């Protein structure tokens, strides 16, 4: 069954059609990469999926019901930047989602309960290779480490779908290759549904189980919005091959 | 090399920093000496020893009327008012600033009001305060609050709005409620910024304090300066002004130290 179902979706900003009549369903446990030229509305689509902006027309169903009107825990995000909290240490950044869930009033846990949670957070940090940086603040991390932290933070909240907006585009090629391997591993372990927007075609194919291409038919015509021009399934065989690199 | 690329060394920097102070001091000494040469009874530019004698009297001799050591009782009175005023102001601004910055309904309700209120010249309100609250401590502290709170409030509202939208969205996707986001994301990031706002408010706070003391008080540094002005006692006024400046300077340093020790992440996050 599809987790996300987008039906007849339009997005129009001051007479400029950005997305035109989009239809898309995303099945659970798939990894959907969305590519397309700059300004075609990839981020807009993702922001609609996280309920930051709303569509002009059409509907989005999440697990069969209308998408909630505000961001929820079911839909985790990682942005290109500003994804982690600058005032919290690496460990506290990962601890935060657990604390928010466990203590509705303070959002902060003290005492012995905190100990178990810290263990959970440490395990997650170990997973993304940040255990040794646990006491540092985000400003002290490299870009790649910050994005790994952002992934860890989003994953520990156990969302049903993870929305990524060019999460790795600010990284240098070596770091990016490492984090691709990590992302692939995390996705295979958690079997989470992922929707990732990227500029990098090879990244889209390396990580995705399905690649969607968004494009405006006429770049200069404001009355013709972007639509899905290609919807390419990526075969698992080629995926494991490239994933192993 | 271009002027914009020339940097003084470590010692050079120190010398440069001290230089204006030394020059001002030397100019004063020269002018004072010249005037005393012409007229030994000159009161306008007292010599160092005249000021030292006056200050020794103010600091270490009991005042006959009140039985107090005036410099210290004045200092205590002024600093108490200043700290009371700034604390109340900071508290109100912090609570209002964060709530208004975060809640769209409150923003619509209060931003125009705060903007209009901040245009009221605080000193023009002083007579109203005296009539309502009398000439006691309350009106002086209130004047400092009225004079500094609107600025701090507007500053904090802007700082809250400066938090990247992505952070607030992210916090929501991690399951945070409005209250939790305020408590765990916004408040901790605003505390060091409140200290910045406080530092900027120190100058105005002293201004309003001294004005209020000059107009109606029985003690305080501002009161003393305006009292002895009647006798042309420059030998007291000048050291008092220097003392006030020094106090303001120490406050500023203290706030800066608190900021860097209590919020070690802040400097790094600001430069990113
Ligand atoms: N809030 C808004 N108001 C008006 N126009 C907007 C708004 N948000 C986005 N747009 C417009 O929508 C179009 C798509 O923007 P979007 O950010 O989704 O592009 P994108 O595909 O993510 O581009 P990039 O690859 O450069 O990130 C752009 O033309 C942009 O100007
Ligand atoms: Mg984008």
TrEMBL record, chain A:
<keyword id="KW-0067">ATP-binding</keyword>
<dbReference type="GO" id="GO:0005524">
    <property type="term" value="F:ATP binding"/>
</dbReference>
<dbReference type="GO" id="GO:0016887">
    <property type="term" value="F:ATP hydrolysis activity"/>
</dbReference>
<keyword id="KW-0813">Transport</keyword>
<dbReference type="InterPro" id="IPR050093">
    <property type="entry name" value="ABC_SmlMolc_Importer"/>
</dbReference>
<dbReference type="InterPro" id="IPR017871">
    <property type="entry name" value="ABC_transporter-like_CS"/>
</dbReference>
<dbReference type="InterPro" id="IPR027417">
    <property type="entry name" value="P-loop_NTPase"/>
</dbReference>
<keyword id="KW-0547">Nucleotide-binding</keyword>
<dbReference type="Pfam" id="PF00005">
    <property type="entry name" value="ABC_tran"/>
</dbReference>
<dbReference type="InterPro" id="IPR003593">
    <property type="entry name" value="AAA+_ATPase"/>
</dbReference>
<protein>
    <submittedName>
        <fullName>ABC transporter</fullName>
    </submittedName>
</protein>
<feature type="domain" description="ABC transporter">
    <location>
        <begin position="4"/>
        <end position="241"/>
    </location>
</feature>
<dbReference type="InterPro" id="IPR003439">
    <property type="entry name" value="ABC_transporter-like_ATP-bd"/>
</dbReference>
TrEMBL record, chain B:
<dbReference type="Pfam" id="PF00528">
    <property type="entry name" value="BPD_transp_1"/>
</dbReference>
<comment type="similarity">
    <text>Belongs to the binding-protein-dependent transport system permease family.</text>
</comment>
<keyword id="KW-0813">Transport</keyword>
<feature type="transmembrane region" description="Helical">
    <location>
        <begin position="113"/>
        <end position="135"/>
    </location>
</feature>
<feature type="transmembrane region" description="Helical">
    <location>
        <begin position="231"/>
        <end position="251"/>
    </location>
</feature>
<feature type="transmembrane region" description="Helical">
    <location>
        <begin position="86"/>
        <end position="106"/>
    </location>
</feature>
<keyword id="KW-0472">Membrane</keyword>
<feature type="domain" description="ABC transmembrane type-1">
    <location>
        <begin position="79"/>
        <end position="259"/>
    </location>
</feature>
<dbReference type="InterPro" id="IPR000515">
    <property type="entry name" value="MetI-like"/>
</dbReference>
<dbReference type="InterPro" id="IPR035906">
    <property type="entry name" value="MetI-like_sf"/>
</dbReference>
<keyword id="KW-1133">Transmembrane helix</keyword>
<keyword id="KW-1003">Cell membrane</keyword>
<dbReference type="GO" id="GO:0010438">
    <property type="term" value="P:cellular response to sulfur starvation"/>
</dbReference>
<dbReference type="GO" id="GO:0055085">
    <property type="term" value="P:transmembrane transport"/>
</dbReference>
<protein>
    <submittedName>
        <fullName>ABC transporter</fullName>
    </submittedName>
</protein>
<dbReference type="GO" id="GO:0005886">
    <property type="term" value="C:plasma membrane"/>
</dbReference>
<keyword id="KW-0812">Transmembrane</keyword>
């Amino acid at each position: 069954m599809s987790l996300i179902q987008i039906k007849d979706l339009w997005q129009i900003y001051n007479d400029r059609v950005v997305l035109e009549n989009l239809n898309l369903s995303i099945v659970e446990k798939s990894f959907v990469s969305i590519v397309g030229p700059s300004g075609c509305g990839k981020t807009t689509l993702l922001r609609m999926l996280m309920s930051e902006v709303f569509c002009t027309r059409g509907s989005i169903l999440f697990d069969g019901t209308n998408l909630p009107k505000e961001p929820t825990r079911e839909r985790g995000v990682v942005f290109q930047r500003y994804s982690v909290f600058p005032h919290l240490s690496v460990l506290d950044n990962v601890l935060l989602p657990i604390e928010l869930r466990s203590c509705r009033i303070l959002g902060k846990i003290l005492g012995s309960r905190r100990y178990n949670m810290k263990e959970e957070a440490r395990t997650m940090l170990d997973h993304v290779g940040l255990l040794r940086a646990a006491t540092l603040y985000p400003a002290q991390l490299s870009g790649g480490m910050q994005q790994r932290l952002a992934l860890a933070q989003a994953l520990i909240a156990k969302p049903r779908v993870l929305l990524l907006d060019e999460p790795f585009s600010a990284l240098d090629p070596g770091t990016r290759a490492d984090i691709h391997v990590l992302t692939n591993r995390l996705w295979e372990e958690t079997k989470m549904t992922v929707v990732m927007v990227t500029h990098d075609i090879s990244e889209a194919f390396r990580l995705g189980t399905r690649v969607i291409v968004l494009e405006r038919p006429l770049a200069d015509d404001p009355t013709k919005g972007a639509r899905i021009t290609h919807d390419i399934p990526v075969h698992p065989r080629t995926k494991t091959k490239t994933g192993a690199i | 090399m271009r002027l914009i690329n020339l940097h003084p060394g470590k010692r050079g920097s120190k010398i440069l920093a001290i230089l204006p102070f030394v020059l001002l001091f030397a100019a004063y000494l020269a002018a004072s000496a010249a005037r005393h040469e012409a007229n030994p009874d000159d009161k306008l530019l007292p010599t160092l020893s005249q000021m030292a004698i006056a200050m020794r009297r103010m600091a270490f001799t009991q005042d006959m009327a009140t039985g107090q050591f005036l410099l210290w009782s004045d200092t205590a009175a002024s600093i108490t008012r200043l700290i009371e005023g700034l604390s109340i102001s900071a508290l109100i601004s912090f609570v209002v600033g964060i709530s208004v910055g975060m809640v769209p309904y409150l923003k619509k309700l209060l931003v125009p009001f705060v903007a209009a209120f901040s245009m009221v010249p605080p000193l023009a309100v002083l007579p109203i305060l005296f009539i309502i609250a009398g000439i006691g401590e309350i009106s002086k502290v209130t004047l400092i609050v009225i004079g500094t709170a609107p600025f701090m409030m507007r500053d904090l509202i802007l700082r809250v709005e400066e938090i990247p939208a992505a952070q607030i969205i992210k916090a929501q996707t991690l399951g945070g409620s409005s209250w939790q986001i305020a408590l765990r994301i916004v408040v901790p990031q605003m505390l060091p910024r409140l200290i910045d706002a406080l530092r900027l408010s120190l100058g105005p706070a002293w201004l309003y304090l001294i004005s209020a003391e000059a107009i109606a008080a029985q003690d305080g540094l501002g009161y003393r300066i305006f009292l002895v002005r009647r006798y042309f006692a420059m030998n007291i006024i000048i050291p008092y002004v220097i003392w006030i400046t020094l106090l303001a300077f120490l406050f500023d340093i203290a706030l800066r130290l608190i900021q860097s020790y209590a919020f070690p992440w802040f400097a790094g996050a600001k430069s990113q």
